[in-house]
Amino acid sequence: MPINILFAAQPDQWPTYNAPLKAACAALGLSAHIAQDIPPADVDYIVYAPNSPLKDFTPYTTTKAVLNLWAGVEAIVGNATLTHPLARMVDPGMTQSMAEWVTGHVMRYHLGMDRHIVNPDHQWQPHTPPLANERSVTVLGMGALGAAVGTALARIGFDVHGWSRRPKDIANLTTHHGADGLKAALSHAEILVLLLPNTAATENILDATAMAQLPRGAFVVNPGRGPLIDDTALLDALNTGQIAGATLDVFRIEPLPQEHLFWAHPAVTITPHVAAETRPHTAAQVIAENIRRGEAGEPFLHLVDRATGY
Ligand code: NAP
User: Fold this and answer.
1) Catalytic residue list contains 273
2) Alpha helix (H) ranges present in 13-169?
């Protein structure tokens, strides 16, 4: 009997994922039937995107796991019908993409590139930026993405500080943790990168109090989630100069409404949630490995902890 794998995402994703999923399952010797329409009682695994129309998991009585295509799970972690093991996406392609995106935006602020890129009056403005090892960068969130981003920035030479819920030991990074460690982490953030999940505990983590703890003139780069930031406090901090600029990839409402003040603020750069997409070829291999584990009775990788919400 083949393993029945339901692909539950937006239909336009099917042509992108169909062949990579089949190839990845075949490479692990899994006999898989992967389709967008399988009777619920026959489904062994669900490959899932939270924008799928599937919201009621009750009929999936024999399903062994729900394998999320996205890293963020805030849209489904509270679904009371989803009682199956739930794995979030940790995809090497997505991780590489995030490291590249953050490095690019951090380098823009570090080197002060804007003064040359946006120079309508053709001013000759020599400016020597500090070297990376003279600049401290803080990454909030030391998970799959934050640790990779911090490591990439440390490789360039930045003095990188990381912050997480639990203690961490990551080569070349200074780590802080817990509520007590946040102030110290923020105090080093000449450039602050937010890579926390969206949970009850992280909402508004960058509020007016936290912004006041940043070095004056800090820059903020947020590819994490919109609710991590108190939008009004950020606008206030930008207007007083406490924060010199912000690059925001994620927002409380997406697409960002036209009337939102971020669009008009000269010190805000908006990118349309593009920092790190799931990459089908590498993601399919991660999904196939989890299915192999499920079939072999081995523990699943990247399981979501319902209690913490990530
Ligand atoms: P992850 O591996 O689950 O890591 C989450 C990190 O946040 C962990 O280090 C965790 O601490 C820390 N954390 C969670 N709650 C905390 C709290 N209350 N206090 C302090 N630290 C806390 O997640 P990931 O794969 O790195 O992804 C992070 C987020 O990036 C996702 O949730 C998603 O929102 C966002 N994302 C955005 C894009 C995009 O394109 N913009 C793409 C992918 C992901 P511990 O290590 O101690 O558990």
Assistant:
1) yes
2) 14-27, 92-111, 114-117, 144-156
